[in-house]
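Please fill in the sequence for the structure shown.

STRUCTURE ENCODING:
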């Protein structure tokens, strides 16, 4: 009986999400007033999304630049075990949280974002080490 109830509940939840409406992007907001650029921006959801997309492109450009420096950092490490530097990672996260608070961003958002980004860059740097080892360029594999 429990399984049938759970299956019905999951079915209802999935069916409900399939019918979720996407809000119109060309209509005025349903409540509140624009606050960015003294009200000059964000009169429609389309305008908001366009600005988010613009910012996302900038973030990706900066992440790509960061990846080049992560690649360089690998050259200074004697072996793959040195890639994960927990004290450095924690310092970066703490600094991001402090900067976020100064800039008006929730430190929790900065923390979650930076932890995910650092994890992804650690994986990337491990790939750099693997590629160096496969090419015979890694000092620890000689």
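FILLED IN BY: designer on duty
SEQUENCE:
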């Amino acid at each position: 009986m429990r399984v049938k109830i759970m299956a019905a509940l999951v079915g209802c939840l999935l069916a409900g999400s399939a019918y979720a409406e996407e809000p119109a992007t060309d209509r005025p907001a349903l409540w509140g007033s624009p606050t960015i650029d003294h009200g000059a921006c964000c009169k429609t959801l389309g305008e908001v999304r366009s600005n988010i997309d613009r910012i996302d492109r900038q973030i990706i450009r900066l992440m790509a630049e960061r990846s080049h420096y992560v690649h360089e950092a690998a050259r200074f490490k004697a072996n793959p075990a040195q890639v994960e530097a927990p004290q450095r990672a924690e310092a970066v996260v703490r600094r991001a949280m402090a900067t976020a608070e100064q800039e008006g961003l929730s430190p929790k958002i900065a923390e979650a974002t930076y932890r995910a980004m650092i994890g992804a860059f650690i994986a990337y740097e491990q790939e750099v080490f693997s590629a160096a080892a496969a090419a015979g360029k890694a000092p620890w594999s000689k």
